[in-house]
Amino acid sequence: MLAQIVLFDGFDLLDVLAPFEVLHAGGMASGGALRAELVSAEGPREVVSGVGGVPLRATAALEPARADLVVVPGAAGRVGEPGEVPGHDADAAPDAGEWREDEFIPVLLGRTLNTDLPGLLKAAMDRPETTVATVCGGSLVLAMAGLLEGRYATTHHMGLDKLDATGVNAVRARVVDDGDLVTGAGVTSGLDLGLYLLERELGPRIAHAVEELFAYERRGTPWRHHGRPPVAL
Questions:
Q1: pTM score, two decimals?
Q2: Residue 95 contacts by C-beta under 8 Å, 6 or more apart in sequence?
Q3: Of 81, 142, 163, 179, whose Cβ has the fewest other Cβ atoms within 10 Å?
Q4: How far is CA 181 from its chain centroid?
């Protein structure tokens, strides 16, 4: 099983590293049944994060026809909208590999729409064998590309209104399982997302072994549109 974790300019480090380490450990615990790699829409390259300009290297290209699991992170930057800072030019994209400390998260997410990433993600979502997962603002990348209308998903609590405005059924939960789409909420939920994916794909014994290795217990009940709806409490 191949898990491809996507890097794009301005990505959030923890959104990437948390699920990557969990999935990588799951691969070791399962004797190689799962392999995780860092990829980009452009292929192998150094990709600068939005956290202090720290780079990670994508070792391969995102290939929906090859991946069983595609994980999309959110971005790291300033919270708010560009208009809140006088003189900030949201359209002034930095040069490749350049990190700008004043970038806003919506701007960084929006710039992904001008790359090959939306088309590749659509191909992944159109492929029945592929599960697409997101952490934090990664679901907003898919939503802004028009790929989540009518689906159930979550994101960072500060972005739930934006997610809902794109036609998504936004759910306030740590992890939301909508079949071939699994989404995680705020940044640290990448750990919970990764462990849930291990349990779902490789079984609870593998997920439990990784929990023990990381000295971390998964938080929250994964939400699914299934079963009896709750009444008001």
A1: 0.92
A2: none
A3: 179
A4: 11
Average pLDDT for 18-23: 98
Task: Calculate the average pLDDT of the chain.
Answer: 93
Q: What gap in Å lies between CA 22 and CA 14, rounded to an integer? A: 12
- pLDDT tops 70 at residue 68: yes
Strand partners, 152: 169
- Determine the Cα–Cα distance for residues 27 and 69; give it in Å rounded to an integer: 13
Give the pLDDT band (50/70/90) at residue 227.
very high
Look at strands 223-224 and 45-48 and give their pairing: unpaired
